[in-house]
Amino acid sequence: MAAKTRLSRIRNIGIVAHIDAGKTTVSERIIFYTGRSYKIGEVHNGEAVMDWMPQEQERGITITSAVTTCAWQNHEIHIIDTPGHVDFTIEVERSLRVLDGAAVVFCAVGGVEPQSETVWRQADKYGVPKVAFINKMDRVGADFDLVIAQMHSRFQSIALPVQIPWGREDQFRGVIDLIRQEAIAWDDSTLGEAYRCVPIPEELQSEARSRRDTLIERLAELDDELAEMYLEGTAVANEDLHRVLRQQTLNLSVVPVLCGSALRNKGIQPLLDAIVRYLPSPEDVPPITGTNPRTGEKEARPSSEKEPLAALAFKIIQDEGRKMTYLRLYSGHLQAGEEVYNASRQKKEKIARLLKMHANKRERIERAAAGDIVAVMGLKDAGTGDTLCDEGHPIILEPIEFYEPVISQAIEARTPADQERMSVGLVKLEEEDPTLKVKYEDETAQMVISGMGELHLEIIIDRLRREFHAAVNVGKPRVMYRETITESVEQEAVFNRELGEKKHYGQVRLRMVPAERGGGIRIERAETAGAAPEEYLHAVEDGIREAAASGIISGYPVVDIDVTVLQVPIREGDSTTLGYKIAASSAFRDGCGQAKAVLLEPIMSVDVTTPSEFMGEVIGDINSRHGEVQGITPRGPISEILARVPLKGMFGYSTDLRSATQGRAVFSMKFLQFDKA
């Protein structure tokens, strides 16, 4: 058997979950049992290693993704611990963009919650294979099979248990390994570091055998070789099951499911085994693809040190006032002190330092290669989503998609000195966080920050005060609306003016048609416009998009319009790109005015879990906020209520819900769509 390559022994994985599923607790146990940390950091004590920001330690939640590296069974595991709160979902998005696999953590009581579905779909979007870990098996109300059933009903992948719990709630003792047919028990006196394999208790032997048979049957449906063994009645070896499980996990057909209780130090070592055994190495994933900026052709870069450099900047943070850029290396290698080419900005940049990160702690290294996730100092111009490469072999990788903000808040400095600190801080925070938008409003003479939710903006303001020492006053949160049209229209505009001793002419005719929600601004060219030079057509499209950035009702972005460029007449000697850009902008704005523009407001999907005795009060409160209940799911003594509610109705909801339910209900919400206000 050939020796394993370095790349085959690397795992780049993310720990993702709904908030309060125990994701960071799982991460803390992983770094403890792999020897990366000498003690277990507890979230509830504010001592979690991976939650290193003061705001994270105070609130007991993850806000920013943290990177670390640990070793298990002669494998190098790069881990990104991601936030569970919907306001910080961009951290999950950009992490999954650069990862090869994911461990999805579910709460055995809460099951598949709204953000669980969101992170699962984000992983599917990037083709990321997954293993699942059902946590909190020791909690009252824990139900392993119910969570499995929810996974089957809500996800396309087949959830295949490779373990079942040995007891549950206060009787939870360990897990039953269905493949090896043995029980695993953990030693509490060693904080779960020591564990032993023991025979399956007699009362569980029949169920364990039956569950193993079911596992084999489901895998046999997907693998011909295993199917043949099964039909012939041949005993299936454990290694055959592991092989097929790995293959089908990489194919995104199945998701191996494990269980445990991270807080009680049970179940983590088998999870690490599963990460190594079932999740892909950089060699197992398809080569990264991008575009050659010189030729416009698609190119693929296999994961190899021998290939030209291709690295994606996926995260930027401010480290004591200095910019630090996180990179995923897909091919080639990096050396400290060398120059690299930023293909996205067409600039050369110098790698001052290469760093291996452990949360907020760092270790200097001299070299990094394909498959590595590292931090870099010295990149002045690089932004999130930029591609670093070899100048002789340029490539631009697919950029990271960012979400549009839905809420805004006015902010002002208390003194001129605070103004300077606030301005510097906002520039750095906006560079760090692509979902934060900063805008100065001329009409109100106010600085306005926009983000993904109340908590998001609250954290930004807190960081301004703590990290940049800027004393600021803030206004009440405001909803970020959008604008669109309700009727079709054709509109023409002509620009014919002398600017700077040069005549500029442009003439454009547009057709504007309302599009479906979430359609954005889509621009097509009619055959009648195709005769115009490409540079003028590009100028027309630029003019449309610039005009769409601020509407005619209240200045909000215009969305959901299909625009067709009908005519672009040319006047020899006078036509200019500026003329056509201005004409297109005027035609678009005038067309919006003629087509009965309306405001769209953000609608949120709200999921409330409440004791059933308070269901009437919760539903009544949702109705008073102009919400619409979509469904009610009874789950024993509690009920889950799913509703659509305008964002403007959700301000202060957390306090009101606690008051109405004696603090016993919880909720989560995520952006659903923009709709008519």
Task: Describe this protein's structure.
- This protein is of the alpha+beta class.
- The protein folds into five domains: 7-278, Rossmann fold (3-Layer(aba) Sandwich); 303-397, Translation factors (Elongation Factor Tu (Ef-tu), domain 3); 407-480, Elongation Factor G (Translational Gtpase), domain 3 (Alpha-Beta Plaits); 483-595, Ribosomal Protein S5, domain 2; 601-676, Alpha-Beta Plaits (2-Layer Sandwich).
- 27% of the residues lie in helices and 34% in strands.
- It is built from 15 helices and 38 strands.
- α6 packs across α7 (224-231) and α12 (534-548) packs across α13.
- The chain is globular and about 90 Å long.
- The model has no long low-confidence stretch (mean pLDDT 87).
> Uncertain spans, ≥5 residues at pLDDT below 50?
none
The strands making up the biggest β-sheet line up spatially as: 18-17-23-14-15-22-19-20
CATH H-level homologous superfamily name of the largest domain = P-loop containing nucleotide triphosphate hydrolases
Q: What is the first-to-last residue Cα distance?
A: 65 Å
In terms of DSSP E residues, the strand content is 25-35%
Helix fraction?
25-40%
The CATH architecture of the largest domain comes to 3-Layer(aba) Sandwich
Q: What's the CATH class label of the largest domain?
A: Alpha Beta
Overall pLDDT level: 87
Based on DSSP secondary structure assignment, what is the total number of beta strands?
38
Q: Helix tally?
A: 15
Structural class: alpha+beta
- Subunit arrangement of the protein: single chain
The shape is globular
